[in-house]
Amino acid sequence: MRPKNQEISNAILKFVTKYYQVNRTAPTISEIAEGVGVARSTTHRYLQDLSEKGYLDYSRGINSAPESAKMKTAYVSAPLVGSIQCGCPEEEQEFVEEYVSLPVSMFGKGDFYILRAKGDSMVDAGIEEDDLLVIERNCPASEGDIVVALDPDNQNTLKRYAGYDADEECYLLAYENEAKYPGAVIKVKSFKVQGVARHVLKAL
Question: Does the active-site annotation cover 64?
């Protein structure tokens, strides 16, 4: 067996890893050969060698991602389900526009969905019109969290949960725009937490 050139081995493994990270599927031998600049027969031999050494699983095609790619391509899928009002509560029909892959290394593991922000009541929290909000559902809300709140009239809004007012016996959902809505809060006897905002995605 011919000795293997370490540079070619490294180049092939790097190409396969990057391809997985971008496309989340295996490249073909032809794609690897073209990408690295070697013959298909050479690519085949090096893939066999890399498979024997445990860097990837290869048998008439690459059967699984290299370990280096697996570590970097852990994703959770989150549906983009429309808009949430950052202002007065309003009824909103939820529907899935698309599914978005969120890397676990950045967003963590959780049951997420994504909403598009509407309105200007949360600008002091860094949330503006058309920002995308990553919402974690099925989790408890603590005082100070920004929550998707569903009131008894089945209307929802995005507000900061400001706790419970024992004197008025109501929960407080606070605005975050002191310039336009100084001290504004929504007072509700009860509400359902449909999720807690964890991240804001926006264009610069």
Answer: no
